[in-house]
Amino acid sequence: MRDPAEASDLLDWYDRHARDLPWRIRPQARAAGVTADPYRIWLSEIMLQQTTVAAVREYFRVFTERWPTVEDLAAAEDADVMAAWAGLGYYARARNLLKCARSVVADHGGQFPADHAELLKLPGVGPYTAAAVSAIAFDDAQVVVDGNVERVMARLHDEHTPLPEAKPILTAYAAALTPAQRPGDYAQAVMDLGATICTPKRPACGLCPWRTSCAAWAEGTAAELPKKTPKKKKPIRRGTAYLARRVDGAWLLETRPDKGLLGGMLGWPGTDWLDVTLDAPVEDPPIRAEWKTVRGEARHTFTHFHLILTVKTALVPMERNASRGEFIELSNFSPSDLPTVMRKAFDLAQGG
DNA sequence: GATTCGTGGCT
DNA sequence: TAGCCAAGAAT
Asked: What spatial distance separates the first Cα and last Cα of chain A, rounded to whole Å?
């Protein structure tokens, strides 16, 4: 009979192996009474949604340097925040980030609510993030369930029910293990374990503090858990982007509508992006000009489709008006303000 | 419950 | 290379 897993065994491991992360209060510091800043915990958790620590680090540094408090962020211009988020993906997060910051200032006196139910009401804050902020910022013993926790629980219990069907079962396992003491450290400990030891492929079971409690280890099934329902194949879409450069160097860009793909982000005017099995999208240049097609295509893969983008360029005179978008002065534009697919189109047009 | 929503790294 | 994967939320 294997041992039951205990939170204290994982906390002991965490005390020795906790990764040093910019938003993290190390366990020794927490024990000495240092408390987390809810703003930084919240910001990091939003950035970390479906995003790796490596990708988040620099964005977190830039955001906290430029907007050190929730009041600073709430007072920021929308376009500045969207530009700063460019490249990180899932842009609804950035739109909700601003909504949330402004709600915290306007409705909560500039303080993040410590109450889990109140956190859950904030824009962009779902079950995971509300629990994580409760636990990490306020040491409230909420049940934190992310992809790491799901994987660790599936293995501890050798649970073969596929996700997402298994979610309620795995959540119940997680709830049974969540301790009343040090819930913030515990939540981070499970996620660290999942990120460094109990990894999706080739888990390092020999280093795991819960090995003797793990049913999948006993059965030799750890690497194949959790089971997941198979994903659908991505269709291929195609479209055209129009890069108009005015003779003074200004670029013709548009802010995309808030809803939908790349919502709220800066982008090149273009055609719709349609499945390649349909007719080619109708040409729709945003300004009258002599358009030239750039050799090659910009290729990009989104969550649910591949895109092949034709890029056309034109040089236009000062006085000519565009039907869509606005010219942005060269001094007010950086390619890094663009979402990656738009930056790829820019790079292709530049000959890169 | 199923879809929509990015991106970069790794195998 | 083509698919898988990452501290999910909104609809």
From this structure: 61
